[in-house]
C-alpha cells in the first residue's frame, strides 16, 4: 500500500515484498511436513514447487517490470497454488467421511503427481482463455472507438508540439 502513497519508494518494492511473503509461505510449508506419511509429504512437496516457483517469478518481476510472460506465469502459479490447496484438502480429509487414501501406496503417489500436472494444465488453460478473451475485447473496443494506431498517435503528438512551439492554434 505504501507504493501507491505519495512517498518516493523504489519501483520494484511491491514485488520484492510479495516475493519475500510467498517465499516465507513456502519456508513454513517446507518445515510443516516433517515426520509425515509419504503421500502427505509428496502432496506438500508438489505445493512447494508452485510456491517457490511463484516466489522466483515474482523476484524476477522486481527487475523485469511489465513483462507479460512473467505476469501470466505468476498468475497461473497462483491459480495452481489455490486449486492445489483444495486437492490437498480432499486427499487428506475426504469429504463426507469417505474412505481414506492409502498414504503409503506408490500408485496413489503417482496418481497425485498426475493430478498436479492436470491442475497446472488447467491453470495455464484458464490463463490462455482469459488472455485471449481480453485481447479480443480490447481489439474490438479499440475498433469501435476509432482509436488511432500507435504510430499515428505519436505523429499527431509530434505535430501538436511543433504547432505549439510555432505559436499556431492548429492541431
Automatic annotation (TrEMBL):
Primary site of residence: membrane
InterPro entries assigned to the protein according to its UniProt record, in alphabetical order: DUF716 (IPR006904), TMEM45 (IPR042127)
Cellular localisation: Membrane
Signal peptide stretch: none
Domain of life: Eukaryota
Keyword Membrane: yes
Membrane topology designation: Multi-pass membrane protein
GO cellular component, one term: membrane
Entry keywords, A to Z: Membrane, Transmembrane, Transmembrane helix
Protein name: Transmembrane protein 45B
Amino acid at each position: 500500500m505504501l507504493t501507491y502513497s505519495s512517498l518516493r519508494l523504489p519501483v520494484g518494492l511491491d514485488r520484492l515484498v510479495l516475493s519475500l511473503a510467498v517465499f516465507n509461505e513456502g519456508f513454513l510449508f517446507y518445515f510443516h511436513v516433517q515426520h509425515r506419511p509419504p503421500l502427505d509429504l509428496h502432496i506438500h512437496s508438489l505445493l512447494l514447487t508452485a510456491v517457490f516457483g511463484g516466489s522466483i517469478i515474482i523476484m524476477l518481476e522486481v527487475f523485469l517490470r511489465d513483462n507479460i510472460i512473467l505476469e501470466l506465469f505468476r498468475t497461473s502459479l497462483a491459480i495452481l497454488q489455490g486449486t492445489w490447496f483444495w486437492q490437498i484438502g480432499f486427499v487428506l480429509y475426504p469429504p463426507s467421511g469417505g474412505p481414506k487414501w492409502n498414504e503409503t501406496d506408490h500408485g496413489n503417489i503417482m496418481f497425485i503427481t498426475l493430478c498436479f500436472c492436470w491442475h497446472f494444465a488447467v491453470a495455464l488453460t484458464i490463463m490462455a482463455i482469459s488472455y485471449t478473451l481480453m485481447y479480443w475485447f480490447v481489439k474490438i473496443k479499440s475498433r469501435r472507438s476509432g482509436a488511432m494506431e500507435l504510430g499515428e498517435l505519436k505523429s499527431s503528438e509530434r505535430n501538436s508540439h511543433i504547432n505549439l512551439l510555432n505559436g499556431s492554434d492548429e492541431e
